[in-house]
Amino acid sequence: MIRDAAERVQRLLGAVDDGLGSFGYTSRVRRAASLVELRRMARIRAPKAVFDYVDGAAEREVSLRSSRSSWDRVEFHPRVLRDVAEVDTSVTVLGRRYSQPFGLGPTGFTRLMHTEGEIAVARAAAGLGVPYALSTVGTTTPEELAASGAITEPWFQLYLWRDRGASRELVERAREAGFYALILTLDMPVAGNRLRDARNGLAIPPVATWSALAEGALHPMWWIDALASDPVRFATLSSQGGGAAEIANRMFDPSITLEDVEWLRGLWAGPIVVKGALGIDDVELLAAVGVDAVVLSNHGGRQLDRSPLPLSLLRPVLDAVGDRMEVLLDGGVMSGADAVAGVALGARMVLVGRAYLYGLMAGGSVGVERALALLAAETRRTMQLLGARSVAELEGMASFEPAALP
Known about the structure:
The protein is of the alpha/beta class and about 400 residues long. It has a single domain (about 30-390), classed as TIM Barrel (Alpha-Beta Barrel). About 45% of the residues lie in helices and about 10% in strands. The chain is built from 18 helices and 12 strands. It has helices at about 1-20, 25-30, 35-45, 50-55, 60-70, 110-115, 115-130, 140-150, 165-175, 195-200, 210-220, 220-225, 245-250, 260-265, 280-290, 310-320, 335-345, 355-385, and strands at about 75, 90-95, 95-100, 100-105, 135, 155-160, 180-185, 270-275, 295, 325-330, 350, 400. The strands form 3 sheets. The protein has an 8-stranded parallel beta sheet. It is globular. The N and C termini lie far apart (about 60 Å). The model has no long low-confidence stretch (mean pLDDT about 90).
């Protein structure tokens, strides 16, 4: 009964929004001028606990702030007198050609942001021609994503569980569902201390506290969307209840070693990417056991606070591994110019997470599409202003100055 009523209200509000035309909320999402603007809209639309889950990081959030500010220390070196009427923004990653130098990284709790969730994100990624990685702690199963037809050859992100049999089964499910690449995340032996989540009491399923009810009054569109849809749940976890930290500490294996990576290499025939290694010695070990690529990542600052900056490690890692593996990068990417900077400095591709989640929170599929359109337009414009007709021509067009020691 509650769901039926919520669906009727949702349809009514949708009709009113459509009738308002350019004054309607959906139209405003489509006109958002930047990801910063989408972030502001997301903050208004989503309850505080949901927004903070996306926006926050661990402890004092030093790593998050440092990652974002690191892009400000990239200096571009443009060339003129080049014909940039047409530019090729495409890149080849893991043997596949993608239209942009950025892809969509894995995120958890995704249908909590908006009930269209992972399928909306995958459709937007497919529409633009970029990769999308479904998370182990996502809210859509590999089979559901495959059956939706939203994207062909998605990537799958894996946390190894204490139960290796369950991990094997999950990997086999991803393979049978047609997933192309496997991303093994290694920087979560235990959950980081995400203080915003602890204060807000974020959990799946959401807990009906007095503060949650008060938030519902302040964010009615989010609650109507939630009530009109299937309940949000972890799609691949046998342990369904609790917050992110509680579930991670209960299910994820903190005893992973290089032998486990070798075990996974024997299990998965496609490309394997390892995410979260920030030490050169670790990266070289991974290259030696046949890992195809690494993502230099500090988990968006959500795990170890004051961790190394991925951007600072890019050149040393590239020098160490040479052509033995591809090197991707994430952390604080909030514009197409950041993506261009990353590949100009040597990364094969950069991954974004919060950037598209702000769009999802702001307006569901419309918001994700707007976020990706902004990233693509900024990428193209930045390359034109640099005088680069292709990603290959970006070499030498950017430099990075690490922060000076105090």
